[in-house]
Here is the input.
Amino acid sequence: MAKDEKGSAKEKKLSMKRRSIWETATKAQKGAIESISKDYMDFIGKAKTERLTVRELISGLKKAGFKDIAQQKTWRAGAKVYMVNRDKSLAAAVLGKEPIEDGANLIASHGDSPRLDLKQNPLFEDADTKLALLKTHYYGGIRKYHWVNIPLAIHGTVVLGNGKVVEVHIGEDPADPVFLITDLLPHLSKKQGERKLSEGIQGEELQVLLASLPFTDKKASKKVKLWVLDHLHRKYGMVEEDFVSSEFEITPAGPAREVGFDRSMIGAYGQDDRICAFTSVKALMDTASPRRTSICLVMDKEEIGSEGPTSMRSRFMEEFYSRLLELKDRDYPDRKLMESLSRTYAISSDVNGAVDPIFKQVHELQNAARLGHGICITKYTGSGGKYNANDASAEFMGLIRKVLNDAKVPWQTGELGKVDEGGGGTIAKFLAEHNMDVVDAGPALISMHSPMELSSKADVWATYRAYAAFFAS
Ligand code: MN
Ligand code: MN
Here is the structure.
C-alpha cells in the first residue's frame, strides 16, 4: 500500500492509495465540508437521546416533504414517506421507479448511545452528608471513569400516575444547572489508585449529585430528598413512584465543539451512531426519484445487543416493507415480502475506531481507519476469528466499491483493532438474517463510546456523499 505519491510510475499505477481528504479537497469541497459540519454539529448538540434523535430527524423529514406512510395511498415514484416506532426508531423512504419486489437500497443506523440510565427506585438522601443523589445503571459499553467530574444533563420521559406524559430536560441550556458524579481528591485516592483501571470507578459508584438544600419541614426525616421530591412535584407533577414509569437518561451536558486550532474536527457526545443517522437521513432527503427505492432506518437498542421492540431484531423493518408493498397491491403474497428483503442492498451504517496517535498499539496499522480519510468500509466485524460477524461477500464489496469510485467519494477500509485485540458488532448481522447483502460503512471516530467522541469534518462530508451515491445507484 503506497503511503503517498512517491515511488515509480508502476507503483503509482498498481498500488492502493491512502490520503487525507484535507490534502486533496478543492476550495468548493472545503466549503461543502464546513457547511454540512455546521448542520451536523447543530443536530448532534440537540440529539442527546434516541427519542430526541428521532424527533430531530422527523422534524427535518417533514420539512423536506416526507409524510406519514398511513397518508400515502398508492405507489408513486418519488413519493416520500416515514414511519415511527414508539418514538425511538424510524424508517423513511423515497419510492423508486422500479418495483419494491426487486429490492431497495437500505441504510440502517442506530440512534441510541451509551449513557447512564436511572434505576427503578433511584432517589436517596445520604444520611451523613445530607446530599441527595440518584442511583444509575449504565447502558451500553462505557468506561465508567469517563463519567465522573464532567457536567451532566438529565433527559427524561415520565408517565405520571394519571397517564399524563411529561418530559424533563435539564442541563443543556447555558442557563440551566448541570449535574455531577463526584470522584476522590488525589490526596485521599491512594487505595482507589490501586484498583484496575476498569474498576477505578465501579457501577454502583455512578451516583448523580442532585441537591443539598433541605425542605423547610421540621417533621420531615429526609429533608433534602423531600426538597427534590417537592421540586419534581411542583415542576412536573411527579411523585416518587413515577420513577417506576419513567425513562431518565443521564448524558454529557452541552453542545458539540470544534476541536483543534484548525477547527477541522468535531468533539461531541453520541456521534456513535448519530453521525450515521444524520448523514444517511440527509442523503435520503436529498434523493429525488431514485431508480431503486431508497430507505433509511434509524434503530434503537443497538448498544445493548439489539434487544426489544424498538431494536433491529424487532419486526419493524418487515412491517415497513409490507406497508410499501401494500401501496401497489393490498393482497400481495408473502413471497413478495421475502423477495423484496432478500433483493435489498444494505449498508449497516455505523462507526469504526480510527487510529489514536497515543494508543496505536491496539491497531494493525495497515488495516486500521484514519481520521479524515473518508468513509470506512468494514467488510466484517466480530472478534476472535470473525466470530459473530456479518462478512460481506466479494461481490457486494465490489458493488459498493464501484459506486463510491464512480462518484469519486473518498473511502478507506478498516478493521476494528488487531486480530484478537478485542472487537465489536453492529446490526449488520440482523439485517443479513433477511437474506440481504449487507456491509458496514461509516466514519471512523477516535475516543468512541466516550462522553466526547471525536470525528473529522471531512468524514462527515465523505459519509454523506457515500450514502447519497448509494441511494442514487
Ligand atoms: Mn454504533
Ligand atoms: Mn457503539
Remarks:
- The CA atoms of residues 49 and 431 lie 23 Å apart.
- The two ends are 28 Å apart (CA to CA).
- The longest strand covers residues 115-126.
